[in-house]
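Request from the bench team (R.T.):
"We need a structural guess for the complex before ordering more NAP. Sequence and SMILES attached. Just send the tokens back."

Command: build protein-NAP structure.
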Amino acid sequence: MLNVIQGDTVFITTGAGTVGSLVVQLAKLEGLKVIASAGSDDKNTSTCEVLEKEGPINMQAFICFWDNVGGEILDTAFNTAVAGARFIECGMISVYNLEPYPIKNIGQVVGKQLKIFGFIWSSLASKYEAQFYEEMPANISRGEIKYQEDKTIGLEHVGEALLAVLMGKNTGESVIIVAEE
Ligand SMILES: NC(=O)c1ccc[n+]([C@@H]2O[C@H](COP(=O)([O-])OP(=O)(O)OC[C@H]3O[C@@H](n4cnc5c(N)ncnc54)[C@H](OP(=O)(O)O)[C@@H]3O)[C@@H](O)[C@H]2O)c1
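Reply to R.T.: structure attached below.
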């Protein structure tokens, strides 16, 4: 989906989350330079610090921004991007429960000829599912892809687990263990 070439830079938000950490690892496997952001202090330095050090994001013809957060960081990325950058809009977790964030830099989409692709996984599943199940177990067994689960035991704690996800307190996929076998 990234459709990029080796050496391109990809910027990925929620780099410590389930989707983000997988995209980070897949991008590295493809030989891309990865800049990732994470909200919690113990997961990363601040996004602004990273962008200051690495940015403006080193945009080549096929550079990508993989966005799981939306809102302010998306607005910043419109401003930081250079001409022709591609934005993959996977999620908008920063604004799910809030008023829509007032994006100020939307004009850059025209000026910089940015390409924005939003998607829902189910619409792409039929095209990529077979490839995913063919490649991903092998990637995991070779240790090329690692994942972490943040386990909560008991269905009665599902509310706390959901809150932790929305507050950025989980590290890895949040899994509810309903019953031990
Ligand atoms: N398009 C699709 O089909 C599809 C499918 C699955 C998921 N998604 C989207 O992908 C995104 C990540 O999902 P996931 O399953 O990887 O979730 P996850 O593992 O629970 O990670 C979510 C992470 O988002 C970060 N976060 C939460 N609130 C935030 C905020 N206000 N601002 C910035 N970061 C915030 C937190 O990480 P930090 O502590 O690092 O901030 C949190 O750990 C979500 O937006 C989700 O809706 C899209």
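Two things stood out. DSSP finds six helices and seven strands in the chain. Residues 9-124+134-138 form a domain with the Rossmann fold fold (CATH 3.40.50.720).
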